[in-house]
Every structure is written in C-alpha cells, then in structure tokens.
Amino acid sequence: MKKMICMTLFFMISFMLGACSLNEDAALLYKQETPLEYEFILPPSYSDHQEEIIKVILTQGGERVKDPDFVHFEIWKQDGSVYYSMEAAKDLGNGTFSISKDFDSDGLYFVKGHAGKNGSIIMPQNQFIVG
Prior knowledge:
By secondary structure, the chain is mostly beta strands. The protein has one helix at residues 2-18; strands spanning 36-41, 51-60, 63-64, 70-77, 83-88, 90-93, 96-102, 107-117, 120-122, 125-130. The strands form two sheets. Strands 1, 2, 3, 6 and 7 form a five-stranded antiparallel β-sheet that branches. Strands 4, 5, 8, 9 and 10 form a five-stranded antiparallel β-sheet that branches. 13% of the residues are buried.
C-alpha cells in the first residue's frame, strides 16, 4: 500500500513537471543581434618593395556599415620575422576601408581585421603571398 502511494505520487509529480515545458518561442524574447561581416578584397599577387593596398568591405544585416566604432588591421609574416602592429584603417566611404603597406620580403603573410559596431566585434583572418 505504501509502495503504491509512493509510485502514484511520483507519477503525479512527474506529470505536473512535464506540463511546465518551455515556451517554443522563448528565444525571441532575447535581443536578436545581426553580426558584422568582413569581406577582404585582396589582389591575386603582391610585389615586394612596392606599396600595396588591402581593402575590406564591412557589412551588417546585408547593408554596408558606414560608421563603425573601429576598424584596424594587423599584419604578420608566417615565420614571425615581420610583424606590423595594429593600425587604424582608412575610411574610403560606403563601408569600404583600407590600409597601405610596403612589404620588404617575399613570403606568406597573414592579415587580421578587427572591427566593431554597437558591441558587435569581428576579427577575421586571411592569408596572402608576397612575391
């Protein structure tokens, strides 16, 4: 008898807790953020000892970002022999930003872009070859 009451009580509590399921659209109650997107525009090849330009297009929600909080570039060579510290990008207008660099030696380089707007931050990385 005591075992029967315990089992009945257990099933009733389980049934009641099962009725307290989450609302399916609960995620919509939170802030919906559209992430920044960063598209590098790199030429097919770079030459050493020549001023080269790296461009990016910054978009958010399918529209170009015209007034980001910041856009910076960081460039380094794969073997670690060359490192250009983070520099602010030049605003070319309409969500396009650039930086100019004169690469002294051939090799594989990496560029990392840092951009932010309204608390949304993105730091994509791309590689390119000089020489």
